[in-house]
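re: the backbone from monday

yeah here it is again, tokenized this time
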């Protein structure tokens, strides 16, 4: 699970970096930056939903401060 989340974060950062690269090189002539940012949003939403699903299935456990304290 840790590896999957780390790989997902790396892909999100790479997509953000490619959007920055396309913004600097294309100067608004192509839609590659828009597609890179859309992919980043899609990956982020997918990661969030996967974490919620994994918690629901019991694959990961929430830790932290108990609510009563």
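seq for it, each position gets an aa:
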């Amino acid at each position: 699970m840790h590896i999957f989340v780390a790989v997902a974060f790396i892909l999100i950062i790479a997509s953000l970096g490619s959007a920055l690269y396309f913004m600097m090189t294309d100067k608004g002539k192509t839609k590659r930056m828009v597609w890179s940012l859309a992919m980043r949003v899609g990956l982020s939403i997918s990661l969030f939903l996967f974490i919620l699903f994994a918690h629901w299935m019991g694959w990961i456990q929430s830790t932290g401060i108990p609510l009563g304290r």
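The CA atoms of residues 2 and 61 lie 13 Å apart. The chain has a mean pLDDT of 89.
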